[in-house]
Design a protein that fits this description.
globular
């Protein structure tokens, strides 16, 4: 790992509160077939005008919109939304990282200053070692050239593979989505915690405290069940590499926007003011370099 990598994150701009992970979509059954009957509340459109009052009431200045479909069309659409909405601070889109012409795709998209990162839905790939496929690694190697981050979307079982993956790119900025979907419902923490600690050894990896309420029992969860997982996150990544995120609108199957964020905000009351502000937005500003875009 590169000595002193984290120094580029050391100069903090004025604090903002940022939702580091949310989605937009215009719903149709074909493109969103993962929304089954148990998630029927998500079978509608979710757009910036729907998120705006939620951001306002929770005291957030803006958000990062993350891809939900693996198409260039959606990435372009998210960037169009971001151009029209000041509250969308950045877009984490999708590109075909395995494509031989990945540079030409990124050259066009990266001209938009709100294009801040890339994500692939690796958790759904049949190969548990997908992140280590040579053509995918070649694509990741190009991201630094365009100053783009990479969101790691995996299940807990993939954490040790993810550690092998990031070890190959000491200068690339990575962020783990949803704490790798920990087993909150069952409470079986040990194997997940081992993987989190291993991945957190790499200083260029940040982590989103997002998507947690949907890993608990949707109808009967309570914040105390999530606290042990937040403890591991803070012990492993420290307060300077964690970001709050809602995973709205997916979170709505288990909790309102406000209640979802309150889990982390309440936990942060036990931290010092500097650490609270870092997790609530300062780290996101630094990770995606919003002050310089």
């Amino acid at each position: 790992m590169t000595k002193g990598f984290s120094n580029e994150f050391s100069r903090s701009p004025a604090p903002m509160h940022i939702d580091a992970h949310q989605h937009f979509w215009i719903y149709n059954p074909a493109d969103y077939n993962w929304i089954d009957d148990s998630m029927a509340a998500l079978r509608r459109n979710f757009l910036p005008e729907n998120l705006a009052p939620e951001l306002d009431s929770s005291g957030f200045h803006g958000s990062v919109a993350v891809q939900a479909r693996q198409t260039l069309e959606e990435t372009r659409w998210l960037l169009e939304l971001a151009e029209r909405s000041a509250s969308i601070l950045g877009v984490v889109g999708w590109v075909d990282l395995r494509s031989p012409d990945i540079r030409s795709q990124l050259k066009v998209l990266a001209q938009n200053p709100k294009m801040v990162g890339v994500r692939h839905i690796a958790q759904s790939e049949p190969d548990d070692r997908f992140l280590l496929q040579p053509d995918f690694l070649r694509g990741i190697a190009v991201l630094e050239e365009f100053d783009l981050t990479y969101d790691i979307l995996i299940y807990s079982k993939h954490l040790l593979v993810a550690a092998e993956f990031v070890q190959q790119f000491p200068r690339q900025r990575f962020v783990l989505d949803h704490l790798a979907k920990p087993p909150i419902k069952s409470g079986t923490i040990d194997s997940w915690a081992h993987g989190i600690r291993r991945l957190a050894e790499f200083p260029n990896v940040f982590c989103k405290l997002s998507g947690l309420v949907t890993e608990a029992d949707w109808q009967r969860w309570h914040p105390e069940q999530i606290v042990p997982f937040l403890d591991v996150a803070f012990e492993s990544f420290g307060p300077d590499r964690l970001m709050i995120g809602s995973d709205w609108p997916v979170c709505l199957v288990a909790a309102s926007y406000t209640r979802t964020l309150e889990v982390v905000k309440t936990y942060l009351l036990g931290k010092n003011p500097r650490d609270r502000e870092a997790v609530l937005g300062g780290n996101a500003q630094q990770f995606w370099r919003f002050a310089t875009r």
